[in-house]
Each structure stands twice: as structure tokens, then as C-alpha cells.
Design goal:
By secondary structure, the chain is mostly helical. The chain contains nine helices and no strands.
């Protein structure tokens, strides 16, 4: 347990560096603070669940692992922000012509049809990532499926959906 406290203390010593890393992704100061706090929590839980250490040696944190965690959390937060309701864009949706609505509905039906005809594994992975909003990394940890396998599957399904015209 003492080792895990040391890791969090070492991470906290670099707090301003982590903030600057998040800002380099394009995050505001407030968002960067939120991302770094989320990173502390996630890495704390990760270190409790996994035998592998976040340390290169007794004195140095694995900065690449921290960078990847920050990047993942930033991207997840960015996705969530883009999905929030914006009243300024409401008119765009309410002023659609009937023809655009029908085209949009037909497109959705075609996507659903394609998904229903896919291999169950591909469909389920895609739904977990895009419908349930589970990150690829979280899904890999939950299921034991490699991150890269999940990434390839999602890319394959996205490419199939993109072919719909």
C-alpha cells in the first residue's frame, strides 16, 4: 500500500507538467485541471487492480503511461462535451425539410440494417464503444480482449458504414 501512495505523491509533484500536457491537447485550464484529477483517480484504481507498476524504477514514474491516460481521458471528455445539447443548434434540426428528414431516416435505417447483418462480435464491440460510450481501453480491461483488436474491429465497422450512400 505504501508503494501506491508513493506513486500518487510522485504524480502530484508533476501536477503543473500534467496540466501543460493537457493544454497541449487543446484543453482549457479548467478542462486540464479536470482531466488531471480524473487521471489521478484512474491511475490510483488501475494500480490497485493491476500487478504491473506505474514506475520505471523506484524513483521514476512511467511518463508514457501517464501521457496515454491523460490523452484518453481528454478525448473521452471532449466527446462528452460535443454530445451535450446546445440551444443555438436546435433550429438546425427543427427547420429540416421533409425531404432531408426522410433522407436522414433512410440513412439510419440503412445503418441499422448493415449492423444487424454483421457478425455478432463486430456489432457488439461497435455498440459498446459508440452506443454505450465505453472507451476502447476500458472495454479491453473489462473483457480481456486486446486494445488493438477492439480498435481494428471498430475501424472495420466504421469503414463499412461509411460506404453507405
Amino acid at each position: 500500500m505504501g508503494h501506491k501512495v508513493e506513486v500518487l505523491e510522485l504524480l502530484a509533484k508533476k501536477h503543473n507538467d500534467w496540466i501543460n500536457v493537457c493544454k497541449s491537447f487543446g484543453a482549457s485550464k479548467e478542462m486540464a485541471e479536470d482531466v488531471v484529477q480524473d487521471m489521478y483517480i484512474k491511475l490510483h484504481y488501475w494500480s490497485q487492480k493491476n500487478d504491473r507498476s506505474l514506475m520505471y524504477n523506484n524513483e521514476e514514474v512511467n511518463y508514457y503511461f501517464v501521457f496515454k491516460a491523460l490523452r484518453s481521458i481528454y478525448l473521452d471528455n471532449s466527446k462528452q462535451e460535443s454530445k451535450t445539447f446546445n440551444p443555438e443548434t436546435e433550429d438546425i434540426f427543427t427547420n429540416q425539410s421533409n425531404e432531408e428528414e426522410i433522407d436522414s431516416q433512410e440513412m439510419c435505417e440503412e445503418v441499422e440494417d448493415r449492423l444487424s447483418k454483421m457478425y455478432w462480435y463486430d456489432r457488439k464491440i461497435f455498440e459498446l464503444v459508440y452506443v454505450k460510450k465505453i472507451s476502447r481501453l476500458q472495454l479491453a480491461e473489462m473483457t480481456g480482449i486486446s486494445y488493438h483488436s477492439i480498435k481494428r474491429t471498430v475501424r472495420k465497422v466504421k469503414n463499412l458504414i461509411k460506404t453507405i450512400k
